[in-house]
């Protein structure tokens, strides 16, 4: 009888262990399916106002970082035809005249140095943009998401231009001297102003380069904004897919 009891207890233990293992397997399987379903569907649906704010801020931080980084390296301006800084408008006739008499290198030096100054200044842009993103309200975010394709760029123009000018101007002034832009431009205008019957040219290079540098930044930010709005593969997180997928549906 004792042996039978021991045998029965052993069988019961084996059966319990088997059932428990099977239950754990099923629970694990169910949890896995629920998790997979959650992951699959989390990028769809209507985002909350908070999610819209978080998604817009994430997208803009990625965009402004990429745009500012591209411009703040050597040839970031000079090698990019969309933002390359040319001779000031009032000096373009000067350039044409001087090139016609063989002073190409002088003109090239001026253009290169103007772009180098802008590249120096661009290194200071990112913190200003990031600060503007952090200060963005949920209403700002929603308006940007559901607005025009350049709504974010227009927002940045509105809230950062004054700060960018204030920050860029002293950097541009220093950079213009460092890369000899001031000297090159002075040489160029002096050569031109010596010519008979010409109207003397005087340009505030700091103001000119500062404005062109800021214009270039906004051009690059606009590119990044358009990319994330129009290109699904640029939506690198579930949150971005949900937020901008919702915007796509609202606008369709």
Protein described:
The protein is an all-alpha fold. The chain is built from 10 helices and no strands. α2 runs antiparallel to α5, α2 crosses α6 and α4 crosses α7.
Strand content: under 5%
Largest sheet composition: none
Residue runs with pLDDT of under 50 for 5 or more positions:
2-41
The averaged pLDDT comes out at 81
Helix fraction bin: over 70%
Determine the N-to-C terminus distance: 79 Å
Shape: elongated
Strand elements, count: 0
Radius of gyration: 31 Å
The helix-strand sequence is: HHHHHHHHHH
Number of helical elements = 10
| Class by alpha and beta content | mainly alpha
Pfam families: DUF4197 (PF13852)
Signal peptide: 1-23
Keywords: Signal
InterPro entries: DUF4197 (IPR025245)
Helices and strands in order:
Layout lengths: L1 H40 L7 H23 L20 H9 L3 H19 L2 H10 L3 H9 L4 H28 L2 H13 L11 H26 L7 H14 L1
Helix pairs in contact: 2-5, 2-6, 2-9, 2-10, 3-8, 4-7, 4-8, 4-9, 5-7, 7-9
Pfam families: DUF4197
Protein name: DUF4197 domain-containing protein
Keywords: Signal
